[in-house]
Amino acid sequence: MFGRKIPLFKLLGFQVNIDFSWFILLFLIVWSLAEGLFPFYFPELDQNTYWWMGIGGALGLFISIVLHEFMHSFVARRFGLPIKGITLFVFGGVAEMDEEPPNAKAEFFMAIAGPLTSIALGAAFYFVYVFGIQNNWPVSVNGITIYLSLINIVLAVFNMLPAFPLDGGRVLRSILWYFKGNLTWATRVSSRVGAAFGALLIALGVLFIFTGNVIGGFWWILIGFFLWNAANISYQQLMMKQFLQGEKVRRFMKTDPVTVPPDLTVDKLINDYIYRYHYKMFPVVQNGHLTSCISTNEIRDLTRNQWETLTVKDVALSCSTDTIVYANDDVVNALNKMNRTGKSRLMVVNSSGDLQGVITLKDLMQFFSLKLDLEQKK
Fold first, then answer.
1. Mean pLDDT, to the nearest integer, of 85-93?
2. Does CATH place domain 249-377 in 3.10.580.10?
3. In this predicted structure, what is the pLDDT of residue 305?
4. Which residues of 54-87 are buried (b: 16+ CB within 10 A; e: fewer)?
5. For the chain, give me the number of helices (H) and strands (E)?
């Protein structure tokens, strides 16, 4: 789901990250508040004040989203689900978990925790707004607090739409799961509802554009595509995990991976390996032992003169735990690692650190596609 993430801070043991796409949202929020909403409702203020209000409103929204996702993560941990962290991106935020909830009850309380938190924040900001009015706080401060009150209520209402994977869609899935006792069926139904909502938002966005509301229509279309795509991907991921459950990494790994020696020059690495095999990362192997990993990230900052003088061992980095799995690992764990890190190739090693093979997302997807096709024909 994410591109490059920036770690920000830890909140009670939860790592909070921010995706680069969130900066797009941050700019749009500050700009729309400073140039649109605040000047419309508080016309007596100067332009600099509007921009400071825009920044304050955006920071308040940032904190609100973090608290919303934190409550999801907190409740998930109470039900024994490991949460890797919280990541903010262009459409808000998400609590990162590798496993599905253990039961419908856990799903329900995890899902409902976020909107309830947003409602509580909306009420809290409203009380602050009333207190500020009674005590003659500056108009700019009161404007920010009433905005944060209203936006949290809007977030709660929007998230409670029964459109999976929104919180409301997860509540719907938990109810269906509880009464039917079938997670796959509940996910399929709630995902179809989510995709339908996405299609509806796209249609509304097109309508808004034709009626003259181009910016608003564009955002409705963007959100609609996000919902439609996320709903379909969520169901596919669940089906894929169920098909792969219990399978070991060794079944899917390629035992003859392309490796590079540590004494190879960077120039030969680029021309004989990267341009030939089109991989962004290669395992560096000496006498069968995985010594390090070399990727295009390490080469990108080198000059062309350095390509001919430096060798792979000069620029390669140690392989992190995010790039390594073991042959006897459950392949679902490898898939979760790929989803979490965005890496499509993982090195398979033994306990001694010797390279045994490579497992790729492409191979897992091909297996999933074939098995799904055969299952559908039964």
1. 63
2. yes
3. 86
4. bbbbbebbbebbbbbbbbbbbbbbeeebebbbbb
5. 16, 9
